[in-house]
Design brief:
alpha+beta, 11 helices, 15 strands, globular
Length: 413
């Protein structure tokens, strides 16, 4: 996710697993508020977790109101969680400036307006930090922050010192040659959910093809599709990239990922208060493993077995994700996309997601301190332990530093 930013400043990420207080009775304990879209499944799942902890239901502040009013205020003792503004056509229209929610374009406007809205929030005990969010929602900056912290990431010519600017397909082609990257991912710098992502391959003869969920209309407009398709002509690929370029682009080297049952695989690992608490394997027949694009959940136990059979340690794999999350110490929860190289010995971090905790019905990893809890309940439990970002906390011994690093190559989620 731009440029030369270092990891966000702040205290070290608080660790989970510290024994907490007894569950409070109704009406006692912290008061939660959530900025989200009323009726959205994310808000509903978080509210369920708050009530299950014996607390009053969170106050829901609609994103639409925040955007129209230029902000919102919170009581000093309200614990404020930001949730995704997605899946709401009117909120999307305001943020991206386009009237059709299926359109791909507009992510740069989304980024600017989203950060402006967050800056307009006042008061409360915040679980998400504006500085962290500004990096998390720019793939170039996120990539640079991870690399600066010695987190294994894919090689990229568009992040870090001397980052290249991409103004269109001609720049992509030039960077592919200059950096000897015949296979790479082209990503909107401020995109999410694989919107606008292209997996590009060039043959020795110079022919190119791209795999993507982008549907190119005859008039040149771009639409998100639930079907992954392949473009075989350079003219079509150039048209898509040129239409995306005004929103800013990020390029990453593509290395084939490890597979499970003949399908490429990667992992989404949720880190809460500095501790990897939940993980899911995503598998696909295409380079894009996102579940809404036809990906499916794989076998996490089989992944652990594969790592150990290759001579690795599962704890080291999780430690890579925790090191990535530590780059964003003022944000309670992130979702890390972890990319295993063929052989299950090396791993890279593809992206870190601010709203990467939507994993319904998935309970915590053994030994994580979140056993029996879903991702939302784990976050509530962390707050009840007093491990809100920036709060004094009792540090837990971290995982031993991972030895199985990818260095500079990867395959993208």
């Amino acid at each position: 996710m731009t440029g030369t930013s270092a990891p966000a400043a702040g205290v070290s990420a608080p660790a989970a697993g510290v024994p907490g207080p007894a569950v409070p009775g109704p009406g006692t304990g912290p008061r939660f508020a959530v900025v989200g879209n009323p009726g959205n499944r994310r808000v509903a799942l978080f509210a369920d977790a708050v009530r299950a902890a014996g607390l009053a239901a969170p106050r829901v502040v609609p994103w639409e109101r925040v955007l129209r009013d230029g902000g919102a205020g919170f009581a000093p003792d309200e614990v404020v969680r930001l949730d995704s503004p997605g899946e709401n056509p009117e909120v999307d229209r305001i943020l991206r400036g386009v009237h059709d929610p299926t359109r791909v374009e507009g992510s740069a406007g989304w980024y600017t307006r989203f950060l402006t809205a967050v800056r307009g929030l006042r008061g409360g005990v915040r679980l998400d930090d504006i500085g962290d969010l500004a990096v998390l929602f720019d793939k170039r900056r996120c990539h640079a922050a991870l690399a600066a912290a010695d987190v294994p990431v894919p090689r990229s010519p568009t992040s870090g010192p001397g980052a290249a600017e991409v103004t269109g397909w001609d720049d992509v082609r030039a960077l592919m040659r200059e950096h000897r990257m015949p296979r790479l991912f082209v990503k909107p710098a401020h995109g999410s959910s694989a919107s606008g992502v292209l997996a590009v391959e060039a043959s020795g003869s110079g022919r190119v093809r791209a795999t993507t969920s982008v549907e190119l209309a005859p008039d040149g407009r771009l639409f998100n599709s639930l079907s992954v398709r392949r473009y075989e002509t350079e003219r079509d690929i150039a048209a898509v990239v040129d239409a995306l370029a005004p929103d800013s682009l990020h390029l990453e080297r593509w290395l084939p990922k490890a597979s499970q049952h003949g399908r490429v695989a990667d992992l989404r690992v949720v880190v809460v208060a500095g501790r990897a608490t939940h993980a899911v394997v995503r598998t696909s027949t295409s380079p894009l493993t996102n579940l809404h694009l036809g990906g499916s959940r794989g076998d996490l136990g089989a992944v652990r077995d594969a790592v150990e059979s290759a001579g690795g340690r599962w704890a080291d794999v999780l430690a890579v994700c925790e090191r990535a999350a530590a780059c964003f110490p003022r944000t309670l929860c992130v979702g890390v996309d972890l990319l295993p190289a063929v052989g299950w010995r090396r791993f890279a971090v593809g992206e870190v997601n601010a709203f990467g905790d939507l994993l319904p019905r998935l309970t915590g990893l053994p030994g994580s301190g979140a056993e029996g809890l879903d991702t939302y309940a784990a976050q509530v439990a962390a707050v009840l332990r007093g491990t809100t970002p920036g709060a004094p906390h009792q540090r837990r011994k971290p995982h031993r530093k991972a030895q199985h690093r990818t260095g500079t190559t990867h395959a993208s989620a």
